[in-house]
Specification:
It contains nine helices and seven strands, in the order H-H-H-H-H-H-E-E-H-E-E-E-H-E-E-H. The strands form two sheets. Strands 4-3-2-1-5 form a five-stranded antiparallel sheet, covered by helices on one side. Strands 6-7 form a two-stranded antiparallel ribbon. The chain is α+β, with helices and mostly antiparallel strands and 254 residues long. It has a domain of 106 residues.
């Protein structure tokens, strides 16, 4: 009986002591986990961005080092390396090429070179497609990839973010009987470089106020990164079953 009495208080006093030691650890672990997640959120984008930029700069540096003779390379005479020198030289070279092609002699040489390329069966297709894409995207007067819209895809009632690439012209526009169609690029998530080309009537598009960068961020993140909308964001309400209200009608209702 005495043994039970001595053991009883020891066990009774030990249990609160063990539970008292377990309690302080849970807030500490949760706090450390939050600090770790906050550190990842801060450092991961910076580190990945720096790594990608460094890889691009290093690629141009290695390319330029093979093209520049050693006697003209400043790193041959300097006791330290100059990262980014190749990148600057490549940009200067591209600018020089653009200046030369803007002249009369440069345009003549470009026309002659394009005539030669157009006679090559495979090369002319690749060159023509790439040239048309770059001219469409980089032209100042173009509205390609500068408008974010909502389009019903893959069926009525489901909406997806898409980007207007321009009005539908050529055979596709003529076959549709003169109806005003718009070329819409529907990217996939999380890889926006692949997607679908859709020819959508302009009246079926819901125009958004977000920029092209904000739309791309939303697509890549799968909806995790959502840009802030305007104070009174237009909500696509169907005027008829399965028919979206155009953006102009939404503006009138406001």
């Amino acid at each position: 009986m005495q043994q039970k009495e001595t053991n009883g208080p020891a066990q009774a006093g030990g249990a609160p002591h063990e539970s008292g030691e377990a309690r302080p650890h849970s807030p500490l672990v949760a706090r450390l986990r939050n600090y770790l997640l906050a550190g990842i959120i801060v450092t991961a984008p910076i580190s990945i961005t720096f790594f990608i930029v460094w890889q691009v700069v290093d690629f141009f540096d290695e390319t330029a080092s093979t093209l520049i003779p050693s006697r003209y390379n400043p790193e041959t005479y300097l006791p330290f390396s100059m990262p980014g020198l190749g990148f600057v030289l490549v940009l200067a070279l591209i600018t020089l090429v653009g200046w030369f092609t803007a002249s009369l002699l440069g345009r003549s040489m470009m026309r002659f070179g394009e005539r030669v390329l157009h006679r090559m069966p495979v090369v002319r297709s690749i060159y023509g497609t790439l040239k048309q894409i770059f001219e469409t995207v980089l032209a100042n007067s173009s509205r390609s990839f500068r408008e974010v819209v909502l389009v019903e895809y893959p069926r009525r009632g489901l909406w997806a973010i898409a980007f207007v690439t321009g009005p539908t012209r050529g055979e596709v526009g003529e076959v549709m009987g003169g109806e005003e169609l718009v070329n819409v690029f529907l990217p996939t998530t999380p890889n926006p470089t692949s997607g679908f080309l859709l020819f959508v009537p302009r009246r079926d598009l819901v125009h958004l106020a977000m920029s092209i960068e904000e739309g791309m961020k939303m697509v890549i993140s799968g909806g995790i990164v959502t840009p802030p909308g305007p104070e009174r964001a237009p909500v696509p309400v169907a005027s008829a079953p399965g028919q979206p209200v155009p953006a102009t009608e939404l503006a009138r209702t406001e």
